[in-house]
Design brief:
- There is one protein chain.
- This protein is an alpha/beta fold.
- It folds into 3 domains: 3-121, Gyrase A, domain 2, CATH 3.30.1360; 130-204 and 375-422, Four Helix Bundle (Hemerythrin (Met), subunit A) (Up-down Bundle); 220-362, P-loop containing nucleotide triphosphate hydrolases (Rossmann fold), CATH 3.40.50.300.
- It contains 15 helices and 12 strands.
- It has helices at 30-35, 87-98, 109-116, 122-133, 137-147, 150-174, 184-203, 205-213, 227-235, 278-294, 310-319, 353-364, 378-399, 404-422, 428-436; strands spanning 8-11, 20-26, 47-54, 57-67, 78-84, 103-104, 215-221, 253-259, 262-268, 297-303, 324-329, 342-344.
- It has a 6-stranded mixed β-sheet. A 6-stranded mixed β-sheet has the order 8-9-7-10-11-12, with helices on both faces.
- Strand 10, helix 11 (310-319) and strand 11 form a beta-alpha-beta unit.
- The radius of gyration is 29 Å and the shape is flat.
- The two termini are 23 Å apart.
- The structure holds guanosine-5'-triphosphate and magnesium ion.
């Protein structure tokens, strides 16, 4: 039997106790294997209610769904057993299926088959991957747009333009009597237009990466300025210990939260201690330096009821050439509002906490593209960059009025690079790489 196409199975629901547990089976032997362990006759395209049985023993009450090929997610016969949750029962059903000539699916194998059977293109498969791993709901919904084919639609439309450009050039070369060569002006217009369109898809790359991977934000400042209080406020829970004793926080504490759809890992640091304790101070500064270095953004805090001291200035030096937000804390006990660069914030009244949240997302996202139109991953961005480079070379050649045969080579290269995004020319290595990041059962 061809390993690629033997019948596979996996638990499709997350491990743990839930309302339902689903075992999914895909392949030509799927129906036969499940029928052997089910009490009722399974019919296509409807659900069948019955019992999963192990010989004489009843294992669980279940609903079985049979999606007959090719009208299924993978394009093969797919049978899903929906039993009661509880990992033991679901595992037992899986084992029964495995005894009937079915093997365990590898990571992403269901999606890989869907791709190989032409049910989804690669950009959709990758959108599934993004949805599985999305850390915030906003990114999940952006990925869902890709799943409905938004990215593929745009790439295909750009490809069509490029193809027309290429066809014009080739017709002029092959049939010079019937088809005059396209003018250099028309080529320049067409290719410039393509260039702009590719750039537009690429423009959302930075935002997609931020939404996918998230960012690290370090809270730094002198002891007692309110770092841990702010950390707790942003998290909306009492995670870090807050006291009026300087030096309360000793270790790094970090938690992840969702700020405007961005997964933010917030890091509370130990305050840098005052100059009398040289060694500890040095450790403090080194530590803060490292936290600033490891972060995408630093929140620099000072106490507005005290004002910026020399110590504050020393710490501020660490961030002032980086991506930072300056925050004057304890605004509830100070009337000073003279620092125009700072956000005056109170951990007690929560004054300006929302403004701070907005500033955090604005500091890392490309403002024009907050509503990310296309989400792309690194592989797709790499293909887009390759395509853009080829279009640029072709455009240069057009401007120098080079022979059109030469120009056609780079137009073709751009087309090939775009083909890789939707998976028209794709190597096994790329495929395996993509699907290995899936979980089993998808
Ligand atoms: N009035 C007022 N008090 C605050 C504010 N923020 C923090 N405090 C108080 O200031 C003290 C120190 O707060 P922390 O959040 O522990 O300060 P920290 O910067 O984490 O201190 P270390 O961990 O020692 O570096 C506590 O008594 C807090 O209740 C604020 O905005 N207004
Ligand atoms: Mg603290």
């Amino acid at each position: 039997m061809n390993y690629e196409f033997d019948t596979i199975t996996a638990i499709a629901t997350p491990v743990g106790t839930g309302g339902v547990g689903i075992v999914r089976v895909s392949g030509s032997n799927a129906l036969c294997a499940v029928q052997k362990i089910f009490s009722k006759t399974i019919k296509p395209e409807t659900f069948t209610y019955g019992w999963v049985v192990d010989g004489e023993d009843v294992v669980d009450e279940a609903i079985v769904l049979y999606f007959k090929a090719p009208r299924s997610f993978t394009g093969e016969d797919v049978v899903e057993i929906q039993a009661h949750g509880g990992i033991n029962v679901v595992q037992q059903i899986l084992n029964l299926v495995l005894k009937n000539g079915v093997r365990l699916a590898e990571r992403g194998e269901f999606s890989k088959r869907a791709f190989l059977n032409g049910k989804i293109d690669l950009s959709k498969a990758e959108a599934i991957l993004d949805i599985i791993h999305a850390k915030t709901s906003k990114f999940a919904s952006a990925s869902a747009k890709n799943l409905s084919g938004k990215l593929a639609e745009e790439i295909n439309s750009i490809k069509k333009d490029l193809f027309n450009t290429l066809a014009g050039i080739i017709a002029g070369i092959d049939f010079p009597e019937d088809m005059p060569e396209p003018t250099y002006e028309s080529l320049e217009t067409a290719l410039s237009n393509t260039k702009i369109r590719i750039e537009k898809v690429l423009a959302s790359a930075q935002n997609s990466n931020i939404m996918r991977q998230g960012i690290k934000v370090a809270i730094i400042g002198r002891p007692n300025v309110g770092k841990s209080s702010l950390f707790n406020n942003l998290l909306s829970m009492e995670r870090a210990i807050v006291t009026d004793i300087a030096g309360t926080t000793r270790d790094v504490i970090q938690e992840t939260l969702d700020i405007s759809g961005i997964p933010v890992t917030l890091i509370d640091t130990a305050g840098i201690r005052d100059g009398n304790i040289d060694k500890v101070e040095k450790i403090g500064i080194d530590f803060t330096k490292q936290a600033v270095k490891d972060s995408d953004l630093s929140l620099f805090l000072y106490d507005s009821s005290v004002g910026m001291t020399d110590e504050d200035e020393t710490i501020f030096e660490l961030v002032k050439n980086k991506n930072f937000i300056k925050i004057a804390t304890k605004s509830d006990i100070s009337n000073d509002r003279t620092d125009k660069d700072a956000i005056y914030l109170s951990n007690k009244t929560e004054e300006n906490l929302d403004i701070l949240r907005e500033n955090i997302s604005a500091a890392v996202l490309n403002a024009d593209l907050i509503e990310t139109e296309f989400t792309t991953n690194n592989r797709q961005q790499e293909c887009l960059r390759k395509a853009l480079a080829s279009v640029n070379i072709a455009l240069d050649a057009v401007n120098r009025e080079e022979i059109q045969d030469l120009i056609s080579i780079d137009v073709k290269a751009a087309l090939l690079a775009l083909d890789e995004i939707t998976g028209e020319v794709i190597t096994d290595d790329i495929l395996n790489n993509i699907f290995e990041n899936f979980c089993i059962g998808k």
